[in-house]
């Protein structure tokens, strides 16, 4: 523990030295983390690893740990931290209370791909690799299961448990009621990878192979947005929808379908989360890094470690971010000046024409890293230093003006030399024939 404390203090001092407006509160050593969740006000943190379930308070104290014996791919926690539900790669579903008591455990017939819980813990819904949606009550009774034609990648449930939305790799979005009756299904034309539902069930956001869909309770598509690649993650608040796509983009939309901003990262985005007021959006990429944006699309900071970020979540109040890595859990506290800090910021990508077609090539960015000498807990302080690209993550006409003066003359010179070389070759060949 002394080593851990010393390293944490060292990392904390690094964060302060470089002037970032966030604070690393604590790091706790674990085995490999697969998923993390945090309560509305950051009072409690739940994490699932390749062998255990961890439950912490805000101060980093481990309140309890339960060995599951297999990887916990999905973990969710009720807003007040009273209930914790988990799903494993072997189909095990567990419900714990805040004290760590196992309330029940059940077996499904495929890897649990997604999990959702009502705030009062009365209902737990799972989407599984066996193509089924399962609904359990607080006593662990299986109320029903619904068979789709593909793996169920994402599920979401309303606050009262009245509606369950599911996205399947059979290209459909499903809306079911509490009794397991199908209200409707919507064909998207591609695998549905991510799903979110409003607390009252009035709206559903679904990410498919090429589009983001925004549907109402009746199954009508209010709008859709072409992303050009799979939408791997969707997070929704009463006023905003955050999206992460396979083609390295993070988006923020309002409920009316207006794209507020888009930011290109240099790796596919597989996870996003958003604060309740939409002020902050966090994104994790397959490069195992975490990025924080504000409501205007400005990149506030980038966070990574040698262990790599495997999962990320932000509290509803936007004050706490939890990151699960290969061997540890990190809790970050956002300070009051985060949104006004002088960290290098991304320009508002709202300036990009919203034509729903992304044909531009991604920019090349140069990232400067500063890290500690320690081998175990190693935090990278990363400041984006994008050359020629004006910090919005997407190239535009201004960004490439300087290239015109380099490449075009270079191409002309090359073609001229090629032409002269050919003429000289033909001349030598003719002389040789005359001899």
UniProtKB/TrEMBL annotation:
<dbReference type="InterPro" id="IPR002372">
    <property type="entry name" value="PQQ_rpt_dom"/>
</dbReference>
<feature type="transmembrane region" description="Helical">
    <location>
        <begin position="402"/>
        <end position="420"/>
    </location>
</feature>
<keyword id="KW-1133">Transmembrane helix</keyword>
<dbReference type="InterPro" id="IPR018391">
    <property type="entry name" value="PQQ_b-propeller_rpt"/>
</dbReference>
<protein>
    <recommendedName>
        <fullName>Pyrrolo-quinoline quinone repeat domain-containing protein</fullName>
    </recommendedName>
</protein>
<dbReference type="Pfam" id="PF00400">
    <property type="entry name" value="WD40"/>
</dbReference>
<dbReference type="Pfam" id="PF13360">
    <property type="entry name" value="PQQ_2"/>
</dbReference>
<dbReference type="InterPro" id="IPR043765">
    <property type="entry name" value="DUF5711"/>
</dbReference>
<feature type="domain" description="Pyrrolo-quinoline quinone repeat">
    <location>
        <begin position="52"/>
        <end position="186"/>
    </location>
</feature>
<keyword id="KW-0472">Membrane</keyword>
<keyword id="KW-0677">Repeat</keyword>
<dbReference type="InterPro" id="IPR015943">
    <property type="entry name" value="WD40/YVTN_repeat-like_dom_sf"/>
</dbReference>
<dbReference type="Pfam" id="PF18975">
    <property type="entry name" value="DUF5711"/>
</dbReference>
<keyword id="KW-0853">WD repeat</keyword>
<keyword id="KW-0812">Transmembrane</keyword>
<dbReference type="InterPro" id="IPR001680">
    <property type="entry name" value="WD40_rpt"/>
</dbReference>
<dbReference type="InterPro" id="IPR011047">
    <property type="entry name" value="Quinoprotein_ADH-like_sf"/>
</dbReference>
